[in-house]
Amino acid sequence: MNAHTAPAVVLVADDEPTMLELVTRHLRTIAQPKLEVIEASDGDEAWRLARERLPDLVVLDVMMPGMSGWEVCRKIRQDASLAHTGVLMLTGIGESLNETTSPLFGADEHIDKPFDFEKLDELVQRVLSKRAAQREAVPRPMVGKRTSLVGNGVGGPAKAAATARSKSKRPAKKAKPAVTPHATRSSSKKKSAKADKKGHGTMAAKKAKKGAKKSKKGAKKGKKK
Fold this sequence. Notes:
8 helices; Rossmann fold; 225 residues
């Protein structure tokens, strides 16, 4: 392992507090390679941390509350984002059962309790070396920070702020003048008055025309007489 790279992340999951403390404390004392050790006290927490931290190695007990170690191992093997993650089963279910079952769920190595620290160190080194090439292609997630990358690489709160600024720069549309019922009635009355006036004017013109015709007829009759 390159000395300039970040320490390998090792997740230890065991529901027995004494065993959990013993294993994590020992792994933190290893100088070469230097390890960053995180811990989980049950299967559900182990799976959550595996998804969040993308560890390089998971040391799993089998019998735990919630998800068993086998279930966690199976889910790790089914998740493409954890293809680089090695799995070491560390459990007291019995050497023969551990040896038979662990490979079925995709574990890289297994060790039975009680165990020897030298043997544990050897297996940790072996699994990390086995997965080294895959691990180099995985970006290290930032602890406590979750970034949602969308399209151009801007997401989450940053994307929301950019969208708000973009909307604020758009020119406001001119509002159409509101049409009140009173204005509508007034307009209708004006139109009606114009129509009435036009109607009256037409009728008066017709009557005047008829009167003129009668006067001409009367004048003609007078001349004949």
